[in-house]
Amino acid sequence: MKKSRPVIAAERTYEVEKEKDQPISTYFGENTFGIKKMKQLLPKDVYKKLVDIKEKDKKLDIETANSVAHAMKEWAIDNGATHFAHWFQPMTGATAEKHDAFIEFSEEGEVIERFSGKQLVQGEPDASSFPSGGIRATFEARGYTAWDMSSPAFLRKNGLGTTLCIPTVFISYTGEALDKKTPLLRSINAINKSALRMLRLLGNRKSKKIVATLGPEQEYFLIDKDYFFKRQDLVLAGRTLIGAAPAKGQELEDQYFGSIKERVQSFMHDVEEELYKYGIPAKTRHNEVAPSQFEIAPIFEEANIAVDHNQLVMDTMQKVAKNHSLACLLHEKPFAKINGSGKHLNWSLCDNDGNNMLEPGKTPHDNIQFLMFLIATIKSVYRHADLLRASVASSGNDHRLGANEAPPAIISVFLGEQLTKILEDIETEKVTSAADNALIDLGLSSLPLLSKDNTDRNRTSPFAFTGNKFEFRAVGSSQSISFAAAVLNTIVAESLDELSGKLEAKSGGDLKKVVIEIIKEELKEIKPVLFSGDNYAEEWHKEAEKRNLPNLKTTPEALKCLSTDKAADLFEKYNVYSKVELKSRYHILLEKYAKDIDIEGKALYDILMTQIVPAGIKYQKTLANSISAAASLTGESALNGQKSILTEVSGLVESIITGARALNRSCADCKIIEDGQKMAEAFYKDVKLKIDAVREDVDKLEAIVDDEEWPLPKFWEMLFIS
Ligand code: ADP
Ligand code: MG
Q1: Model confidence band, residue 590 (pLDDT cutoffs 50, 70, 90)
Q2: Burial of 443 by CB count in 10 Å (0-12 exposed, 13-18 middle, 19+ buried)?
Q3: 147 and 70, same structural domain?
Q4: Which of 160, 203, 391, 654 could be a cystine partner for 484, CB 3.0 to 4.6 Å?
Q5: Residue 456: CB within 6 Å of ligand 1?
Q6: Is the distance from the beta carbon of residue 213 to the nearest atom of ligand 1 less than 6 Å?
Q7: d(CA 628, CA 53)
Q8: Does the CB atom of residue 214 touch ligand 1 within 6 A?
Q9: How much distance in Å is there from the Cα of 74 to the middle of ligand 2?
Q10: Ligand 1 center from residue 346 Cα (angstroms)
């Protein structure tokens, strides 16, 4: 590849002359039409009405909508926007937008700018080109977008154009959710209701509203754009399908938190500047474990906003990367044998005054509340580990969850030493619930001392309590966090309700005593899900099997639970997914998996036949010519080393041809399987495993073929950008 190697990045310079940065607070949110701007730009009475509508979940009337639309349009046009778009999150996992200019003809036939309340509130994109998993066939092609007032509109500057983007939900003509947002919003309602019910039983009259909070820690890779476009596998499948591991990977542990390279920091700077304008509180940036791997984490926000913001973060990173001649890789496993990328999803519940339900309290009473929410969460994970696993299932994420890499497919909960001890004491009645100051005896009054150092040490756990929140670490880097969040909200709502039911049944007694009793009872059942050891260890896999914890290594296996009555009943009860909606998710996700693997299979076939095999043959020819020319001068035996290389090259090339053909046939065979579940399973068994098998030969060939002739950028080149 030497001849066509891109300009080595180090030769570029990033010491550009620029004005000094403005303080973030001076421009934070300047591209959003949020509460602050509404207060500033809307007539007083309209603003008041809007706040009332939002708070009380009332229906938006047309006059208010018209007034908001007018102010929004004026603001957008003032800031250079020419178009507006309903921005939504179809089941593709990406975001979608259809742009319309603000123009209309006036009665005099002149072009004028106009934007009505109706246009703000509702749109009608053609739904027929988005995945609907059967909903469309059952009903009809029309889909509607409807303004989601809980997430602020924003200006999106892209190339030369500026567009006013209005966050919306996307539903079918008959009201079925066609997107990822609608179920999330419903789950937010569900958890609010169930959490308030629990709080009231515990004597809390103050909290008016409970919201789920999310803080997604986004991991990603950066490589030079020139390398990216030389690899069909990266461009089409998002990951390298072949490539020998570099001599140096992450073994020196010199990447994590290392000093950030200049070129990367310039990229991060530009990303963050855009994010701040969107009102996204990007807080932390650092080098990750693998070479060329990084992380960006925001300050946590309400679930709905956090989901939108994470979509914008992923989008912005990919866009800004281009300006820096970089490619931002969001795939969960862009490079085999190198650490993959996840998105640790920090989750908690918070009331309208900012009180965190998972914050260990300062008083025994606060700690009762804390323990109830803690137990409810553990209970929900125990019950529905399969749903959590399904919520993060994708072909890309299987490389992390199915392999021996953080975290495993077995969903268990890590609590940390101190909490584990407290729960053990409750369970074994070391401190009886009868003692009046039982909770103080338990050490609960000192729970605030739970430090992160104490709880965060186990990095191998998929679901860890980290001080005042749970961290769901199985989410994939490229995934929308909405599905995982919706599942989490729903299953915890269910557990809270069950615990509330038990509290109600035992009402009248001493609250502390009753709570301790309930916790004791619960622990008996849910204990198997608690695990504080090494989640990668072989022994844990055996132990988990004994404990009956699911270990679903592949997406087709993991998705099955979405087709069960248990799941359907749960989601229907909490009005998060109707049975039809859930079934459609199941089918869409299976289909997506099959398509992903099919693309990988076809891309690899093409790379093998048109790049790798020709390179091997060329080198074989060079060797053969050279050996036969030299043999007459040196004698055969002097060339044994070279002859062995020739034999190896020929053998590998033959084997690769056989592997490539088999792969191609399997892709075609799998595609005609009608049953979605069976098709996905076949793609795993007959295509995915063949990709892995042929790859071994290719990576061996890469290690012996003349570097000049190797047609693809190698890992060592791509992974050490400077
Ligand atoms: P780490 O997990 O690496 O130790 P932090 O403790 O800073 O890092 O938290 C990581 C993420 O968790 C951040 O995005 C942070 O905002 C988020 N987070 C903190 N508290 C909460 C909470 N109550 N709810 C949801 N996310 C939270
Ligand atoms: Mg973390």
Answers
A1: very high
A2: middle
A3: yes
A4: 391
A5: yes
A6: yes
A7: 86
A8: yes
A9: 41
A10: 6
What's the pLDDT score for residue 434?
Answer: 42
CATH code of the domain in which 663 resides: 1.20.120.1560
Question: Relative to the alpha carbon of 475, which ligand is closest?
Answer: 2
388 plus 368 within the same structural domain? yes
Has residue 553 been placed in a domain? yes
Q: Is 455 in the pocket of ligand 1 (CB under 6 A)?
A: no
User: What average pLDDT score do residues 61-90 get?
Assistant: 95
Q: Which amino acid, one-letter code, is at 615?
A: A
Count of other CB atoms within 10 angstroms of residue 37? 17
Atom of ligand 1 nearest to the CA of 456: 4
Q: Are residues 76 and 127 in the same domain?
A: yes
pLDDT of residue 436: 44
Q: Which residue has the tokens 């009665």?
A: 107
Backbone angles phi, psi at 465, to 5 degrees: -85, 125
Inside any domain, residue 293: yes
Residue 641 alpha carbon to ligand 2 centre in Å? 51
Same domain, 598 and 573: no
* Average pLDDT for the chain: 90
Query: By alpha-carbon position, which residue is closest to atom 19 of ligand 1?
Result: 300
Supply the pTM of this predicted model: 0.94
Whether the predicted pLDDT of 433 surpasses 50: no
- Asked if 171 and 192 sit in the same domain, the reply is no
* Structural domain count, the chain: 3
Cα separation, 697 vs 694, in Å, equals: 5
Please report which helix (H) or strand (E) contains residue 143, including its range. Answer: strand 143-147
- Whole-angstrom distance, CA of residue 25 vs CA of residue 400: 38
**Structural domain includes residue 16:** no
- Ligand 2 mean position to 529 CA, how many Å? 21
The closest-lying atom of ligand 1 relative to the alpha carbon of residue 348 is 24
Q: Residue 543 maps to which CATH number? A: 3.30.590.10
| Chosen domain end from 136, 156, 179 | 179
pLDDT > 70 in the chain, percent: 92
- Looking at the predicted structure, is the pLDDT value of residue 455 above 70? no
CA 329 to centroid of ligand 2, rounded, Å:
20
Q: What is the pLDDT of residues 128-138, one digit of tens each?
A: 777 877 765 55
- 3-state SS string for 547-573: CCCCCCCCHHHHHHHHHCHHHHHHHHH
For ligand 1, pick from 218, 469, 473, 489 the residue to mutate: most ligand atoms within 8 Å of CB.
469
356 CB near ligand 1 (under 6 Å): yes
Q: Both 111 and 200 in a single domain?
A: no
Q: What is the 8-class DSSP label of residue 528? A: G
Tell me the C-alpha to C-alpha distance, in Å, between residue 450 and each of 212, 236, 362: 22, 46, 12
User: Are residues 569 and 604 part of one domain?
Assistant: no
Q: Is the separation of the CB atoms in 243 and 699 below 8 Å?
A: yes
Distance of CA 213 from the midpoint of ligand 1 (Å): 10
What tokens were used for 355?
């009180």
Q: Measured from the CB, is residue 478 less than 6 Å from ligand 1?
A: no
Helix (H, G, I), strand (E, B) or coil at 452: helix
The helix or strand, by DSSP H or E, that contains position 193, with its residue range, turns out to be helix 181-201
For ligand 1, say whether the CB of 469 is within 6 Å of any of its atoms: yes
Structure token digits, residue 388: 């959590």
525 has pLDDT over 60: yes
Given a cut of 90, whether residue 444 has pLDDT beyond it is no
Q: Residue 404 — pLDDT band, cuts 50, 70, 90?
A: low
Q: How far is the CA of 466 from the centre of ligand 1 (A)?
A: 8
Q: Is ligand 1 within 6 A of the CB of residue 657?
A: no
Q: Can you give the CATH number for the domain in which 101 is found? A: 3.10.20.70
Cα–ligand 2 centroid distance for 456 (angstroms): 8
Domain span at residue 149? 31-179
For position 255, what pLDDT does the model report?
Answer: 75
Residue ending a domain, among 179, 197, 228, is 179
Residue 2 has pLDDT above 80, yes or no: no
User: Both 415 and 502 in a single domain?
Assistant: yes
